[in-house]
Amino acid sequence: MTTTTIDMERVVAFAQQVGAMLTGGATAAMMVVGDRLGLYAALADGAPATPGQLAGATGTSERYVREWLAQQAAVGFVRFDPESGTFRLPSEHAAVLASDESPASMIGAAPLISGLHRRTDELLDAFRTGEGIPWSAQDPATFESVERFFGVGYRTNLVPEWIPALSGVHEKLTAGARVVDVGCGRGVPVILMAAAYPASEFVGYDVHPASVETARRRAADAGVSERVRFEIGHCHGYRDQDVDVITFFDAFHDLGDPVGAGLHARQALAEDGTLVLVEPMAGDDLATTLATAPMAAINFAASTFLCTPNSLSQPVGLALGSQAGEARLRKVLEEAGYQGIRKASTSDFHMVIEAKP
Ligand SMILES: C[S@@+](CC[C@H](N)C(=O)[O-])C[C@H]1O[C@@H](n2cnc3c(N)ncnc32)[C@H](O)[C@@H]1O
After folding, report:
1. Nearest residue to 246 (alpha-carbon basis) of 190, 198, 199
2. Radius of gyration, alpha carbons of the chain
3. What is the pTM of this model?
4. Pairing state of beta strands 269-280 and 243-249?
5. Which of 19, 64, 91, 179 has CA atoms 20 to 30 A from the CA of 210?
6. Of ligand 1's atoms, which has the minimum distance to the CA of residue 278?
7. How confident is the model at residue 293 (pLDDT cuts 50, 70, 90)?
8. Which domains does the chain have, with CATH numbers?
9. How far does the centroid of ligand 1 lie from the alpha carbon of residue 320, in Å?
């Protein structure tokens, strides 16, 4: 019989780590409260406020705001001054919490965590049966978060960094190109490209009707509807031909049949067209991803709850997962017949892969 001795210091250290994770989960819910009620926005100027002043400025109840502020101080998001009884949001924290427009913003990711919790029972069933869960069955907070949080990265990188790093794509878009975006969701990257390249025309396809409807509204609000169409459409279903650029933003790994989607896109592309995949940053194997990808832990959670189930809900069900990595994606593209596959750019959270038909 073997006896195992337990290192109590390591038990305590690990328990503290788990405690921090639980605090993070609870804090994500508190972030949603601060976001929805405008509490962070009201503190964004950095001025100290008492709970009463913050409640007055946001039309909320002082007793609740006092408790929320205490939690936010406990977690280090706001600073508490015991002398004056005031709370202050440092400007560096406001850059992350108070608005989606800041390039450092992370507040849009908070509703995603609520969305995952609201679909835990469905995921338990999926684990037991092996069945998939389509994107459309996820909680609406998930769609909101994808639009808001991914939108931060797209605004920062897509037009200034990623497009210029692709071979000849900036030039084509400037001259006037035909672009198809597959798995367009609520349309953020398409609308950004349409605004930056007024000579080009764009079509976005997605199987999720509610996202397509929102994307159409967003295009109208941005004043680009004349050159942008959003349609309900499957990655194998669109009929466009001679397309200059086909993009998949955070969508390729979600597909049941990415090889088939790649083949379909290859047939739709012009001879000198370009396929562009924007995919979450990951290594080529789990050990590398765990050691290097900054968002691996949250990405694997999203992959377990969202990406893998969506893929398993569709024919083939290849289930690449959100952390597929460049080498795996390259293999899929090779199988679909692409050439000239290369990683054109990266950002903290994404890699951009281009390929030729
Ligand atoms: C993570 S979201 C990304 C949305 C958008 N591209 C973005 O980056 O904001 C993945 C999208 O792929 C769509 N999708 C999943 N399977 C699809 C399929 N077979 N054909 C077309 N779209 C699909 C989902 O409905 C969802 O809107």
Report:
1. 190
2. 22
3. 0.95
4. parallel
5. 179
6. 8
7. confident
8. 8-99 (1.10.10.10), 114-356 (3.40.50.150)
9. 14
